[in-house]
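Narrative of accomplishments. A recurring question from our advisory board has been how the design workflow behaves on a single, concrete structure rather than in aggregate. To address it, we present the structure tokens for one chain from the evaluation set, followed by the sequence designed for it. No filtering or post-editing was applied between the two.
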């Protein structure tokens, strides 16, 4: 008997008709010229929940042209920070007024629990408010000590047209980590959501119009990476691409952008470690480990998917994690009691299972789970909470992004050994340490190769605190003040005061 906590089908009524998602180009909603559409099946309920226009090169190019024109004529970039902030604040209010509607679609398309989707949509409103505040603080630098006849100022200007390409795991949250910051800077944008989760991006388009954003400032093109995403990454009229998704696609975007040397900001994958020392508050650590690995069914760039536990406590701590794992509510995403929902696609479910099988074959042991989860009344797209022990650092499950509810356990004896394991990774998104000794925590924070280090917590985030990865987890930063700076170009203005410039040409 599995002895897990499973929430069966709640019987919640699904919407009577699928959501219809269309492109937004130059202020107009439109279908694809060839009439192509794609349908999204709910991962948990297996029915069509949205029908989206499937764009091609013509739609992508028309959207880029609209964004280019809107940037160049200054309808948004020439507004004051105050005027831009007013629109962003209105959008935040509208998001809050639409949380229920948006959260439902987010859940139906992604499989995430409704309570979590509500939190993400309402939390995203705060990102829009924070970006609005930043819009009023834009400023550069001045140099008043270059000599009495010189003055220089460093101006910050919006970078221009930005392509915004987003993934399926946090469709609205990640969009809101990018778009309001680009808009606060004065940029215009072409947005391409994942083909699996287009609807909340389209709903946002409706709210942008309602908030009074000028036409053409934000354009939305629906469709696949090829050809829509690739066109947004390569077109010469685009000045910057901001992308969140897999490291493999991130590399192809950087390559596509290189021909025109446009700026690229990448938020990519992670294989994030948490290191647990014997002197830690082990109860809190175990709870955070369980949260870190099962949140969003592990389909999370910040998934705490590998723990590195001190040898002296490894057995007891793993047993504690297994016991807690049994209590996490997996099941119907539409039931508000559910904490962990469905896997995004059957193909992705098979990929997760293949990692666990390969680890088993290589000698690892599955202490919990390791197979498809049957949720009464729903389809097969669920996976059991899974804990894998006796893992060695060379196994794929210890090195690659599994992107599922699968925890791997490694052990260590000294801080140096723990740091060596942490840093023996292609990724460097986030890392965590659990210890009551401040010196241990600080030495760990200095030594860990990661964009974010958490001490005695996991995945706490704030709009004010910038986020991003090192190594193959990405380039650039999002949110916080640095997140705004990514969308700005720098111009130095050097001025002479008075006619003091010595002639360069000598008189003959
Ligand atoms: P993905 O890379 O498959 O797709 C992301 C987006 O890129 C989608 O919109 C997709 O249509 C588009 N795309 C695909 N091929 C493209 C191409 N050749 N050119 C341009 N665009 C293309 O990623 P996914 O499966 O949607 O998301 C999961 C991945 O995202 C994981 O690796 C995860 O770690 C990562 N992620 C990272 C962060 C972060 O902040 N670091 C956050 C969330 C997700």
């Amino acid at each position: 008997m599995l002895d897990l906590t499973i929430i069966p089908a709640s019987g919640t009524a699904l919407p009577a008709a699928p959501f219809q998602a269309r492109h937004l180009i130059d202020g107009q909603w439109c279908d694809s010229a060839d009439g192509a559409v794609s349908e999204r099946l709910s991962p948990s309920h297996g029915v069509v929940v949205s029908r989206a226009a499937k764009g091609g090169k013509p739609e992508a190019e028309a959207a880029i042209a609209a964004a280019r024109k809107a940037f160049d004529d200054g309808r948004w970039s020439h507004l004051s920070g105050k005027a831009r902030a007013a629109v962003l604040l209105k959008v935040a209010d509208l998001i809050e007024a639409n949380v229920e509607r948006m959260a439902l679609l987010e859940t139906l398309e992604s499989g995430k629990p409704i309570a979590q989707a509500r939190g993400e949509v309402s939390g995203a409103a705060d990102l829009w408010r924070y970006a609005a505040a930043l819009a009023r603080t834009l400023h550069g630098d001045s140099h008043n000590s270059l000599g009495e006849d010189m003055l220089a100022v460093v101006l910050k200007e919006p970078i221009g047209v930005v392509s915004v390409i987003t993934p399926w795991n946090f469709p609205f949250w990640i969009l809101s980590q990018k778009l309001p910051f680009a808009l606060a800077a004065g940029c215009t944008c072409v947005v391409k959501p994942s083909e699996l989760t287009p609807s909340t991006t389209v709903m946002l388009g409706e709210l942008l119009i309602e908030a009074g954003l000028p036409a053409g400032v934000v354009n939305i093109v629906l469709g696949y990476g090829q050809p829509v995403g690739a066109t947004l990454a390569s077109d010469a009229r685009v000045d910057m691409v901001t992308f969140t998704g897999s490291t493999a696609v991130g590399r192809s975007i950087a390559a596509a952008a290189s021909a025109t040397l446009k700026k690229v900001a990448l938020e990519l994958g992670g294989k994030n470690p948490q290191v647990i020392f014997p002197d830690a508050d082990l109860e809190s650590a175990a709870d955070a480990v369980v949260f870190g690995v099962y949140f969003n069914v592990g389909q999370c760039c910040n998934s705490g998917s590998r723990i590195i536990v001190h040898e002296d406590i490894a057995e007891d701590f793993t047993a504690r994690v297994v016991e807690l794992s049994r209590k996490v509510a997996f099941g119907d995403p539409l039931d508000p009691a559910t904490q962990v929902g469905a896997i995004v696609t059957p193909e992705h479910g098979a990929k997760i299972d293949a990692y666990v099988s390969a680890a088993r074959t290589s000698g690892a042991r599955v202490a919990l789970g390791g197979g498809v989860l049957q949720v009464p009344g729903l389809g097969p797209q669920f996976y059991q909470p899974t804990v894998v022990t006796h893992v060695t650092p060379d196994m794929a499950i210890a090195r690659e992004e599994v992107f599922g509810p699968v925890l791997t356990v490694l052990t260590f004896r000294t801080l140096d050994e723990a740091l060596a394991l942490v840093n023996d990774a292609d990724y460097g998104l986030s890392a965590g340490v659990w210890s009551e000794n401040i010196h241990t925590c600080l030495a760990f924070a200095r030594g860990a190769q990661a964009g974010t280090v958490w001490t005695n917590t996991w995945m706490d985030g704030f709009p004010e605190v910038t986020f991003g990865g090192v190594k193959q987890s990405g380039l650039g930063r999002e949110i916080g003040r640095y997140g705004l700076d990514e969308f700005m170009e720098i111009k130095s203005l050097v001025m002479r005061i008075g006619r003091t410039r010595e002639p360069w040409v000598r008189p003959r």
